[in-house]
Structure formats: C-alpha cells, structure tokens
C-alpha cells in the first residue's frame, strides 16, 4: 500500500506484547516489501544467480525456513528431521515445483504463512519469558527467547534486502 506509512509507524499491533512490537513490525514490513518486489518479478528468473549471488528462490525458501527454525528454538525445541531436510534443500526448486509463476506464488505463500505463525507465537509469548535461556543448534549455543525473536526479525530483514536487490537486477 504505497500511501501508507511503513508498518512500524502504523501503531501497535493488537495482542502483541509491547516489547515484541518491533519484531512483529519488522516481519510484517518484510512481507509487504516482498509482495511489492514480486508483483512484477519475471518468474522465469526465480533461480537465476546474477554475479553468483543467491537467487530470489533461495531467499524466499530461506525466509520461511529461518523463521520456522528460530521460532522452534524460541520454544525450547530441537529442529525436527523435516526442518533439517528443508534447510538442506534451500536454494533448489522442489522436484514437483511446477511452472515458475506457480513456484513464486507458492514460495511467497509459504513466507506469508511463516510470518503469520511468528505473529501467533509473539501473541503467546509472555514478556516475563523473554530473558529465558534457549540453546541454539546442535552445539547448543546460548541465546534467549528475545534474542531468537529479534534475530528472526533482523535476519528476515537482511534477506529481504538481498532479495529486493537481486529481483531488481533480474527485472532489469
């Protein structure tokens, strides 16, 4: 919506704890930015890697995957075999992916679903739990609930920025 201010300037989101508002705003802004970038994106170039950079397809897969993984860690859960398989497949089209336009639509829908799952988890996250310890990865590196949620948002924003640049280059 070109006439609206960025998401963070539209006010608080209902049911999101005050300390998690920036996380929710960043995720919703990322979703909106992706939608604008892909509105005129040439779908046939989804897996192109100009100058060797990651493809738009990779970024779309990674956006959904990393949100899912960070939310899992924030819930103090290990990654499932399905999540590990998804991670290993990031950057490659699914064997039954279909036509490029359908792939773009499916990947964008998956990212949107991941954002909605993240928002639901933010709604359920009590502020009192934000500093709770959470191990990350096989090495159980130390983090906290808020560390994981903020990282999910900033990592999402980082990849959306890369997606925007790659999509613009490919679109000419």
TrEMBL record:
Q: Which domain of life is it from?
A: Bacteria
Q: Which InterPro entries match?
A: DinB-like, DinB/YfiT-like
User: Which Pfam families is this protein grouped with?
Assistant: DinB_2
- Please give the start and end residues of each transmembrane region: none
Question: What are the DinB-like domain coordinates in residue numbering?
Answer: 27-163
Q: What is this protein called?
A: Damage-inducible protein DinB
State the organism of origin: Hymenobacter caeli
């Amino acid at each position: 919506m070109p006439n609206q201010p960025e998401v963070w300037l539209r006010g608080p989101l209902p049911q999101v704890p005050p300390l998690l508002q920036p996380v929710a705003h960043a995720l919703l802004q990322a979703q909106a930015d992706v939608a604008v970038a892909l509105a005129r994106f040439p779908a046939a170039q989804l897996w192109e890697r100009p100058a060797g950079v990651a493809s738009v397809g990779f970024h779309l897969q990674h956006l959904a995957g990393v949100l899912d993984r960070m939310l899992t860690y924030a819930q103090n859960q290990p990654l499932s075999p399905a999540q590990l398989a998804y991670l290993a497949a990031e950057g490659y089209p699914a064997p039954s992916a279909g036509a490029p336009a359908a792939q773009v639509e499916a990947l964008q829908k998956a990212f949107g679903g991941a954002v909605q799952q993240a928002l639901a988890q933010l709604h359920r996250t009590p502020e009192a739990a934000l500093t709770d310890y959470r191990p990350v990865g096989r090495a159980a590196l130390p983090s906290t609930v808020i560390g994981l949620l903020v990282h999910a948002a900033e990592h999402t924003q980082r990849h959306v920025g890369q997606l925007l640049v790659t999509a613009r280059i490919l679109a000419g």
